[in-house]
Write a structure and sequence with these properties.
CATH topology of the largest domain: 2,3-Dihydroxybiphenyl 1,2-Dioxygenase, domain 1
Number of domains: 2
Strand order of the largest sheet: 6-7-8-5-1-4-3-2-9
CATH class of the largest domain: Alpha Beta
CATH architecture of the largest domain: Roll
Helix content: 25-40%
Order of helices and strands: EHEHEEHEHEEEEEHEEEHEHHHEEHEH
Structural class: alpha+beta
Radius of gyration: 21 Å
Number of helices: 11
Amino acid sequence: MSDIQNLGITGYDSVRFVTLNLERSRRFYLDLMDFQEVARSTPELEEESGDESAVFSAGDIVIECIESKRRGSFADYHRRFHSAGIATVNFRVRDAAEAWRRLEERGATFVDDLKEFRDGDRVFRSFEIASPLGNATYGFVEKREWSGFAPRYVDLEVAPANRFSFQKLDHLTSNVRTLKPLVDWFRDVLGMEQFWEIAFHTSDVAPHARTGSGLKSIVMWDPEGGIKFANNEPLRPFFNKSQIQLYLEDFGGPGVQHAAFAVQDIISTVAELRERGVKFLHTPDNYYDAAPARLAAQGVSSIDEDWDDLRRHGILIDGADGKYLLQIFMVEAAKYYDEPAAGPFFIEIIHRKGDEGFGGGNFRALFESIEREQQGRVTV
């Protein structure tokens, strides 16, 4: 009897991001985020696939950025339908063959066959399945004595870095027009469980408004691997005016809206990232006027950080029962680069102080901040 409880997921392995400009992505991750470039596609792989890849890492976060070099490549196919963004989410599993067997029993749609590479005692096995997120795929990777990124990539020797102490990929958030098919797929195919849920609309506080925006969010998770996925849909009234719907229009369908990077000291991280030129969503000043009383009512009477520092850097805070989390969100790539095709993807920085939730008290502030940015974004 296998000791694998579900699919044997032990965490995220990596995400594959289709970029418009690989050199620009390289500058972003190396110069601004202090990631390391740990691997590159080999010339042979590039000739065969038509794509060029670079792999960046900090802590346990691994981002593969991939740019199309000819028609018909994987990245070119993605770009036919979508702006730049995450095309594949890869999980690390203990046994790829066992994960395949269980997924096959549950009706998963396989994109390719189970592939195996051996180099002495080193073993790399992987496969991908289709998902309800448009053209996005989910991959499953098993590594035994395999210390590098993947076969047919050159692993680079790099000096230790990661000055911001990025720890791991805390969660991914996806936007869809209707939640149920995606949530059912997470449950019935990936075997995940519901972790959290919230719903709200701007009309809650402005009932006579003639416009507005809302969302419903359900977080699914794999208890064995600890990975979490937040999933959003638009909420009536003004369904088609929701910022979730606007994301779908900008991206070209459902997809991963943002990735959350966990850090150990969010204040110093955000302060230096701002100095380096990283842009974050604006938090209204009056958010901090009400935050201490809101937290106290939720059971958080004191925090370790200075409220003036949080206000100065625009960091959000939420919690309950003596535990809390701090988070902030970068502007979307399209606005960052003043280029619509760069897409609506963005990065969240999160620092957990015992709270494993998703900042329900911050959802509205984030939601309204995204709306303000969307209203001022470049359009075509």
